[in-house]
Predict the structure.
Amino acid sequence: MVFCIRRAYRSEQAGFRAGKFLTNPTKAGRGHVNNLRYRSSTRKKVSLLLMLRSSARILLLSQAASSSFITSSSPVSRLQSAQFRTSARTMSEMTPVFTKDACPPAGPYSQAIKANGQIFVSGQIPADVNGNLIEGNIGQKTEQCCKNIAAVLEAAGSSIQKTVKVNIFLTNMADFAEMNETYAKWFAHKPARSCVAVAQLPKGVPVEIEAIALQ
């Protein structure tokens, strides 16, 4: 916008000089009168263009200042920057947990992950430290799942008493009562819990338990 105004201003100046020197201001008659009118009109146009150019500069400066303020000082911008820094820091602080005192992972996953002051324990199945499935009823198999969770949390520097959320998966809801009886012995502080029935679990086990605990 400033560029367009500048070009118009220069064109008017050129016209003014042409009118000034091509028409003899001392010549009497109609030519002299027309020349005076042209010069007066040109001055008004030049003044108007100068005012527009000043207004355009003020507008551009105002927009630049406003944009800078929004970018650097707005609460939204500061919040987004803080969230990005927190996310980057959290990602860099993710630590896998492994212990020989629990069932080894049966796939490409960790026994647990420590992140942001919490420990996310992968689903534990009723298998021993060698990965062999144990025999017994649903109560015994539930106990083995809980033992694995306790061992993983201890390796992570926490304990089963710091568990805040548990997810239980059963292939048969008829096992719910017996599973609960054993579960209550390990999670006496009653953390938040979900229990769902599923069609099938890895290695054909009847129960799997995962947990989230505080460090």
